[in-house]
Amino acid sequence: MLSPLPPTPLLAAERCPVLLSCALSCAGSALLLCTQARWPELRTRPRQLLLHLSLADLLSALSYFYGVLRDFEGTSWDCVLQGALSTFANTSSFFWTMAIALYLYLSIVRGSPAGQGLLWGFHAVSWGVPLAITVAAVALRKIGYDASNVSVGWCWVNLEAEDRLLWMLLTGKLWEILAYVTLPVLYILIRKHINRAHAALSEYRPILPAAPALRPRTSLADKKLILIPLIFIFLRIWSTVRFVLTLCDSPAVQNPVLVVLHGIGNTFQGGANCILFVLCTRAVRARLLALLCCGHCAELARPGQGPPSPWQRPQTHGAKDRDKDMDKDVPGPGQTKPLLPST
């Protein structure tokens, strides 16, 4: 059994940036949800999965915001409620992140269009497993005050639970560590497949008039794919570091810089997704500009003139078709939704 460390004091200078991160993540997740609701033609299959990830991130950021603001000093009814909500939402976020990676791998590398069975499987696992774990943890009274040693003011696994290490793994850390391994492997395989597609296409480039434009357009899509696991690991690694330090009974777990990095990393996932898939996606950004400027600024970011998003399901008709599908983006203002095969 682990010997509990003394509680980690949460200073105002540490709370403010974490609260700001929660607020930005809430705003980012809400913006992702609003773009999906406002423009139905943006609802490609990967972005539908991103919608569910945004819901989980929004709930997670809201629950963390309350926890950091409240800065619990003991187990109470609202501590248990907040801990249960954050546990469910955070674990669901891990599963949806891995579901998106698996979907892209199956679509791009395997060329297997996702059927309704696979999508229902994503829902069952990404919502059902976190719900079952959270209900069991609450029923067995494992959720409660954790002295901010493996959190930043919010509640998680009760510090007084004898089997708290097991429940820390089940309610988050096991899935977080699994994501550290799974995400890079899947995205490396995707990147290798894209590189092979580029190599196969290169022998035809001399006879293709538009060939010089193919590589630059797909390079940004490749970079976006690489950024997904890198951002996830960079944000989440600090909570894992504090978890390991807690296991080692190290006083370094109370380092203020580490506490702030942990707080921002756990709460900013929704904001990071918004930056990557809204603000850095030309077609979506063009629509937002057109909406904000009442149609007068649409020409500032015309989606047909710049790099695309990787969030479309590619076809399965060879390397050239896959490369062209990676170039596609969601339609710009006034355009119709691209005709993609239904699944």
Structure description:
Helices cover 67% and strands 1% of the residues. It has helices spanning 12-38, 45-70, 77-109, 116-139, 164-202, 211-247, 256-267, 269-279, 282-292, 319-327, and strands at residues 143-144, 156-157. A two-stranded antiparallel sheet has the order 1-2. Residues 211-218 and 303-343 have low confidence and may be disordered. The protein is mostly helical and 343 residues long. It is built from 10 helices and 2 strands.
Point out poorly predicted stretches: 211-218, 303-343
Q: Which strand order do you get reading across the main beta sheet? A: 1-2
Radius of gyration: 22 Å
Distance between the termini: 50 Å
Coarse structural class: mainly alpha
From the spread of the alpha carbons, the general shape counts as globular
Number of DSSP E strands: 2
Percentage beta strand: under 5%
Mean pLDDT comes to: 79
Topology order in helix (H) and strand (E) letters: HHHHEEHHHHHH
Query: How much helical structure, as a percent, in the residues?
Result: 55-70%
**Main sheet characteristics:** 2 strands, antiparallel
Number of helices: 10
Task: Reconstruct the topology from this structure.
Blueprint: H1 12-38, H2 45-70, H3 77-109, H4 116-139, E1 143-144, E2 156-157, H5 164-202, H6 211-247, H7 256-267, H8 269-279, H9 282-292, H10 319-327
Antiparallel strand pairs: 1-2
Helix pairs in contact: 1-2, 1-7, 1-8, 2-3, 3-4, 3-5, 5-6, 5-10, 6-7, 6-10
List keywords for this structure.
mainly alpha; 343 residues; two-stranded antiparallel sheet; single chain; disordered C terminus; 10 helices
